[in-house]
Specification:
This protein has 8 helices and 11 strands. By secondary structure, it is an alpha/beta fold. The protein has a domain of 164 residues: P-loop containing nucleotide triphosphate hydrolases (Rossmann fold). The protein is globular. The relative contact order is 0.19.
Amino acid sequence: MNQAPLLEASHLSLSFRQKTVLDDISLTLLPGQIITLIGPNGCGKSTLTKVLLGLQKTDSGRVSRRKGLRIGYMPQKLTLDERMPLSVSGFLGLTRDARRADIDHWLARLNITQLASQSVHNLSGGEWQRVLLARALLIKPHLLVLDEPVQGVDVQGQLELYRLIPELRDELGCGVLMVSHDLHLVMAATDEVICLNGHVCCSGHPESVSANPAYLELFGRRLDSSIAHYTHHHDHEHCDGHHHGDHTHD
């Protein structure tokens, strides 16, 4: 297996209206590796994801992607025009180079075959997330990018989705970059965690990050998976000793 990095980012910095959104961020993602970006709302997770995907330019730093890299991207939200009649099968058929057999395979693999002829406008949050995941998988990605993949999904559905991700990684041999705000739910499903708050506060194995003072400072000692929004004190010390003021929202 080619162990050359799928993607390497070095010293990425970006400011919007004099506010630092990304501050000197570097990361490397290898084939078969699952990296999760966590951090409070407005900490730069979605912005960093867009930079890595090439959808957003930075002020400095560079991103290099492996030649011919195929990225399957599952956005946080995708809103379709309600007036456009579209079935799940029809929606997945719009994916570039999607073959009927592959669509059927992923519908079955994600347990949503029964949704094939349903309108995309009538799906529950959890069903829509699985359809978006199927769309990302149809690309046959080397890298799967999941931006808050459990948005609008009940806790049982979240656990199922997080159990599925390492399985999909093994089946496709792909790398996975995931964005989440809840470390406890993703802990079993990730190899490395990068805790962001405009800059990298701490990173490493999920167990070590969950005990890191910088992580505890950001999230408080008790993480309740039912709380999506955390209060965050904008003036605080980080484990790197830097003092940071307020941050813009993504």
